[in-house]
Every structure is written in C-alpha cells, then in structure tokens.
Amino acid sequence: MLYLIDRRTTTRTKSALNRERFLRRYKEHIRRAVQNMVAKRSIADMASGGGEVSIPARDIAEPSFRHGAGGNREIVSPGNREFAKGDKLRRPEGGGGGAGGAGAGSGDAVDEFTFSLSRDEFLNIFFEDLELPRLARTVLGKVDRTKLERAGYTTEGAPCNLSVVRTLQSALSRRIALSGAIGARMEEVRAEADADEDEDRRAELEAELEALGGRQARVPFLDSLDLRYRNRVLKPAPVARAVMFCLMDVSASMDENKKDLAKRFFTLLYLFLTQKYEQVELVFVRHTEHAEEVQEDVFFNDPGTGGTVVLSALELMHKIATERYPASSWNIYAAQASDGDAFGADGGGSARFLEESILPLTRYFAYVEVPDGADARASALWTAYDAITHDGRFAMRRVTRREEIYPVFRELFRKEA
Amino acid sequence: MEPLPHGPEWDFDLVERYHVAIAETAAEFGLDTYPNQIEIITSEQMLDAYASTGLPIGYPHWSYGKEFIRNEQAYVSGAQGLAYEIVINSNPCIAYLMEDNTLMMQALVIAHASYGHNSFFKGNYLFRQSTEADGILDYLVFARRYVLECEERHGVVAVEDTLDSCHALMRYGVDRYKRAGKLSLAKEKARRERRESAQQHLYNDLWRTLPAAAPGTVAAAAERYPSEPEENILYFIEKNSPKLELWQRELVRIVRKLAQYFYPQGQTKVMNEGWATFWHYTLLNRLYDKGLVNDAFMLEFLQSHTNVIAQRGFDERGYSGLNPYALGFAMMRDIRRICETPTDEDRKWFPEFAGGDWLKTLDFAMRNFKDESFIAQYLSPKLIRDFRLFAVADHAGNESLVVDSIHDDDGYRRVRQLLALQHHYDVIVPDIQVANYNRNGDRTLTLRHQVLRGRPLASDDADQVLKHLGRLWGFTVRLESVDGEGEASKVRECVPTIAAAA
Description:
By secondary structure, chain A is of the alpha/beta class. Chain A contains 14 helices and 13 strands.
C-alpha cells in the first residue's frame, strides 16, 4: 500500500515564523551588526541591502544538564594502528583535565553563529522606529485612493454579504405584520360566529375563518423581500503626500571624503523614504555656484565641481516647491548637506532666506554639515544657520566620520513619542 | 517481471513501479511495516523539516529558526549536503523524498526509509512501548494550535520563556520505563482480598505487645515527597509546581510528550540506521539478482552506499566519532554472516545463534534491543578487529591518557563492554532526579545528581538550567551532586526573585 503525494507546491516558508522569532529574540545583536555594516559598506552595497550578521555562539546556546570535564571515563574510537594496551598518551589540548579545564576550554571556543539577512530584514531593522517628523496625514492632495466603508444595509447584493441577523429580523416583523392582522380578524369572526344564532350566517363565518386560517398558514417564513445585505461604498481616502528635497553641495571644497559622507547620508535617507513611504516624492538638487535639479543616479554618482553659492540651491528649492508642490496639499521636507563653506553675504542671505521663505513652507528641515575634522571651528554657514529662530522644524548636526552617520540619522528622524 | 527502466530522471510512474518491486522483495523477507506514505518535497522544504527535527508540523520557537538558519547557511554555502530523506515514526509511515534525487536515489530511499526504518518503528520494543505512531500527527496539530493560542492570549514572550525553560529540561521529560497501567476495579478488589487474607493468615497476637513508634518519625516519613525519587522532572513539575498557570502546565506537557516521542530515536540510533542500511543494501541487491535493475544502477547505488557507511579512523581528517550507519550496518551484516558461515570463533562467542536462521536472529535482535544492549550482545571480535577499536582511559588522577584495551584476546570483552556503555543513557545524560519537595515548608524543590565516576556537571550550563528550573518552579530549587558514598559534593541553589520578594 502506497500513498505518493507531491508536496512541492504547498507552502514553502514553513520556517518563516521561526526565523522571525529568532530575529526578534536577537534584535539587539543584529541591530549592532547592522550599525557596523553602515560604516564599512560602499554606497552601492548599502542600497543592495542584506548582509552577514554574526552572533557569538555562546549567546544563542541552549543550556542543558551535561557532563563537564573531569572524573573518570573511557572512550572507544576506531582506527587503532600503533597502540597496545598500557600505552600512555599526552592529553590533547583543551580536552579533559581537571576542574580548570572547562574554563580554559571555553575561552578559545568563541565561534560565531553567522547568517545573512535579506534586504527587507536588513532595512526593517535599519529604519526601525524612524518616522518623518510632523507628518500631517490630513493633507488631501490629488485623490486617487479610495477605501470601502460600511454604509448600512441594502435589499440587493451578493450572497456573501448576506446579513443573516438583519434578514431574520425583517422576516420576523413581516410575519408579525401579516399574520397579526389576519389573527385579529379571525378573533373577531370567531366571536361573531359564537354570538350569532343564524345557521347560514354561521356557516358563512366558518368558511371565512377557514379562508383566513389558510392565508395565515401561507405567510412564508422567509421571503425574498426580507433579504438584507451588508452594504459597502467606496469613499475617497485622504492620502498623506510628502515630498523630500535633497540638497547637496558638490563644490570643489567638498573633497571625495566629504562627498562620500554626504552621499551616505542621502543614501540612508533615500532608502528610508522608499522603504517606508510609497507616497513620498523625491527631488534632488545639487549646487556649486548655481543649482540644478538632477535625477537620483546623477545626484549620487556624477561628480560635479565648481564654486559655492548656497543660496542658489535654496532658491531653486523654493521655486520648485511653489510651482509643483503647494504647501497646502503637500508635506514638504528637506535635507541639506554641505561642508559649511559660504562666502561673503551668502551665509547670512541663505539663513535669512531659509528662515523667511522656506521654513514656513516645510514641515522639517535638516542640515547636516561635513566639516574638515571633528575639531574644526564652526563654519560660516553653521554660524549663520545657528541664529535661525524656529519652532522645532529645523535641526542641524555635524558628521565627521562614517560611524556617526547612522546615529545622527536616527536622531534626526526619531519617531516622536 | 520485466527489468525496471533506469536513468537519471524520475517521475511518479517510475517511483511507483520501483516501489512495487521493492515491496514485493521486502515481502519475500517478511518485513512487517506500517502502510507507506511517500511525499516529494523540495530542498527548501527539506530545510524546513530539518529545523523542526523532522516533524511535519511544529509549534513556533526561535530555536527552530536558529536551526533553520544554520542549516540553510551551511547548505547554501556548500558546506553541507542535505539528507536524501526524512522519515517519521507515524502510522502511516511518512517518508520525505527530495525532488533533486536521481531515480536510483529514490529507489534507495524507499528501500531505506519506507521498508527499513518503517519496519524498525513497528517492531522495536522501545518504539512500541513509548510512542504512539497512530496519534502523533494529530497531537502535533494540537500542540501547534495550542501554543499559537497561548501566544495570542499571554504574549509571545511569556510563552517563549516557558518553552525555553522546558527545552532546557527536555532530556528530563522522559519516562524511561512504562508506568504500570491502572488496575481494573475487579483486579484491585482481588488484590485487596488477597492481602487481607494474607494478613489474617499471618496474624499473631504478639505484634500487639510492641510499643508504638514515636510520633515524630512517622511525621518525618510522611513529609518526604515524592516518596520515591522521580526521574521525569518535567512530569513532576507539570503535576506539582506551585506557581505554574494552567496553560503553562499544558506547555510543559507538550514538551514532555515530544521528548518522549524522540526518546527511542536517541536510544536506537545505531540499530535503527544499521537496520535501514542493511535492508536497502539487501533489497536492492536482491532486485539486481532478480535481473530487475542493471549494472549502471548498481554502480550508482554502491557509490552512494559506500559514502554512507564510510568510517574514518580517529586520526584521519574528517573524523567525527563512530558513524552509526557504519557500525550498525556492519553489525547487521555480521549477524547474518555468523548465521550463514560461522567460524570457530563465532561458535565460541555466539553459540546460541551461530549457524542459525539469519532472518529470525536479525528479527529478534531488531525487536528486543536498544543500542547499548545490542552492542553488548552482538558486537563480535571480528568487527572489533575490522574497526580496529580501542579504548582510552581518561582518569582525573592520571597525568596522561592510558590505552585501556585494544582489539586483542584480552581486550574484546572489555572494548565491547565500554562501547556499549558509551551508548548508555546514564552515561550520556547525567543522572538527575527529583529527591524532595518541601510541601509544608518553604516549597523548596531538591534535585539529586548522582555523580557518575567523579564526573561533574558542566558548570555554566548547570547554573543556567537551574535558573530555568527556578522559573518553572517559582520557589527555591536546589541541586545536590552526590557521590558514590552518598555525600553531597556540591550544592547549587537558585532562588527565584519573585519568591524572594514574597
């Protein structure tokens, strides 16, 4: 007797739940590993996601009662070639020995449990607890999304939407209404028949009574009139729309290292936004002495060089924002990266323009500075921006090393409590 | 019968034709099996099955995720191949076949799993005694649903904590011997009457004159609970833990049941694999003798087969202990050899079956032994020579290791005895039992570890398991390591924080 079954088509990810449990349990380890990865990776790698995570085997071991080193025992092994009874052998390293053996052995046995995260798992952990600050969900833009909402009951519909309770309720009331009136009439007729002496009249009444009884019996338990269906209607759903402006200084003073830092920051930002929000539009603006709007791959990969006029970028952003993204129907965000160079009136002008024209439009503006070194003194732009008065919609940070990018990024986009 | 077609590719029709041929051949040898269910799965599903220790359904737990990731990693990087099959002790007996196997491999696996393992599951006394092949799948479905329900109601973390603690004690969730069944009412009555009549029979007025025992001693004796040490710690916790919620008790029970289900498998690794390997070898050779399969098939088969039963020497690269397939297969073959062509040595060592009926002898061995007793009974001097087995003594008092015995006349018995011991449950798993539960006092649970030949517990692990025990028990748990003279050499204690605060 044989049952031969092809199981290949049934669900393949039986262990997905177990895997998720494992990742949840060792989240701390994994988060730390992910953080280290950011510093080491090239920009192209960062977007491809995934990566190896190592956890010390000790941390994930499952304990059980077992024999430790020490005591007396014999071990039988195969493959004896030269030994005779009574031969003495040196103890192999790490094994056996006295009570001290256990401690010594565990010292060099710190092997790692290594596994890889998928791109999604990587990014999920990467951007956990991050959110666009001050996002207003009520801003209604172009409505192209709808959702089903309950809207009472109808008398027509698909069988799957049949509301049994409502149907039976209306059937009950219909039965009461119809047979109740008949019942009342029957009572009357019966009373009249009892009172009446006339034989003919009584027979007439008896006949009516019978007819009424027949009508009462014919009132159906369930009629197609009774059917009630749950009703749902499509309603336009408000969509929170957001646009993120990425501004980057690519002038000559931004050396490769600084550009790398800035690009890393924007790569994180880009990944974060595309990962978490389907409805976020991105605008890339880079500037030297003049600003231009570019595509994302140009923004990240194309080297540019020239002088520095910060104001040009801010003005271009303002122009794009007012033309294409009216603040009334868009959540506007911006992030700017620069080494802080600003010459002459540029710094003060930029700060003023930012404060007066841009901040009122935006929900959040983050400025990230990549100075020459950790101990460099405050730059012209930094000093100018520092004087801006705002209500929490402006933030600035300095980043000098790769490792700082991720913490700074998390700080800027932390989920509001 | 017509020769069976051979080629690298299999299809369902061919698998069924091979199965018919193998089933007929197995019937010639009188193999008694559960009905067979063969399921074709992908390598991914095989990895899934690995993670849940071969069971088709399991409750979710992070440790299974860890196993899955570990295996997947090893498999994807090419460090580890996958088993050709997994077989489940159930009725019908389910065998999983990988879709990437060649036709020959499918035939091999059917012979190995669906006839070898299957008949072992049905015949061996340990499996008959302690596992219920009919109910296991239903129980697994229940267990999974129950755990998921608990997670919903009490939170994933709380469930995980309890399961972690249970898993740490899994090896102590086993009844090694079947408990006596409850007596029927009639039998109980008969027993009572028998005892009463015996008492009347032995009545002697003299006993009345003895002074009564001091009241204190009786009370002290009554306080001892359980009255006899309990080896199934999880069982004791399930029934007696003062703190556990009802749902936690049920979780303990689920883990305990699974442990019980796996218990015979750990005890019969050598025999089970040896038996299955012996039968796939014998059955496929028989197919060849009958002219059903050709030389190409046999060459491919022998290549796989020799890989499975390879045994490396202790000092060779890739040595990882005794290969149970190699040892088991060699012993099964050896028993057949001793029956068919016994030497003088065999007659001297195995007078009871040398020259006898090999099928009967093998069948008897399969039914009535576990690894430890099987080796003690059937390992022949010839095999000890073939494997060049030797025993090394590792004694704490000695500076160096000493070769205890080798494959010579003096050593055969000793090597055999030591190898058998190496497969003994008590040697593998430290002997720890529930000694006392202070029911009327501070509710301390005392466990006793009977130290075996001075071998201590692995300290770090023991402390951690004790913490898990404390979590399940809710009050102080004490673990006393007791040496041969009954003196406690080491006492560990775990005081759960909740109890301390209360």
